[in-house]
Amino acid sequence: MARVRTGVRAVSAVLAAVVGATLAGCSSTGGKRAEERAAKSAQGRAAVDTPRWTIAMVTHSGDGDTFWDIVRNGAEQAALKDNIKFLYAHSDEGQQQSEQVQTYIDQKVDGLIVTLAKPDAMKAVVAKARKAGIPVITVNSGSAESKAYGALSHIGQDETIAGEAVGDELNKRGKKKALCVLHEQGNVGHEQRCDGTRKTFKGELKNLYVEGTNMPDVLSAIEAKLQSDDDIDTVVTLGAPFADTAVKAKAQAGSDAEIDTFDLNEKVAEGLADGDLGFAVDQQPYLQGYQAVDLLWLYKYNADVLGGGQPVLTGPQIVTKDEADELAEYAKRGTR
To answer: What does pTM read for this prediction?
Structure first.
């Protein structure tokens, strides 16, 4: 028991230091801010004396998606605490994401964290990882496929449940006609969010497909819809970076529609506080990254797993203007 207490004290000390520090923002494409983050991490120290295992994360993020910066921040902080060498790659193309996972398999990493936004493209390579003896945890997307693909656990929110929560919230607000903006075609999680919203929403919900990597296109598409249909009283975006674009489209269209969004970042927190946004759905991305690394360390160290075969849910949590100020402080340090 003495050894356990010592380990807990050490972990607590490092976590206190992490919480007290301001995390550097970063671009998912790397660059200067990634270097600054790496330098800051190097100043810390591990809370454990286990071997220097290597864990790789491969996500379906497109370039510049700030949501994944938050996931990555969480993963890197857990890696620092757990004496883990952390590697990261991403692509919003399913085939390229699969190839990135294969590269890490060839490098014989000790653990893999993957997203299954496009599960058909990932099924075979996840099976290869398991065959190679590499434990896999899925995060964010793929709760329905995770267990069948052989992953130890899935960490994230159930996208259908999250959508249903949005539908319920729209009903409370008396909304009648909503637009659900899907910014990544082929992402099953996005379809589930809109379908879940449609399931509980008593009004009418229409899908709008846009090219998420082209913000001017997103802006013009939402603006055109709002101009052509005065009955639309709500726009729901599926990612924090698109909420601000929807606010701009609303202004240009002269619409009175409420803008709501999935996911949270500093800009969304500001929008909630200012009243530009009605509500946001937080799935705690920092926790997803942090917990995934931590669980792989626990599995390597003690064969621990969580979930009992069911997803470990990190959301959804509906947040409004009332929580905006507190969340803004967390968002500034890159953890919400």
So the answer is: 0.81
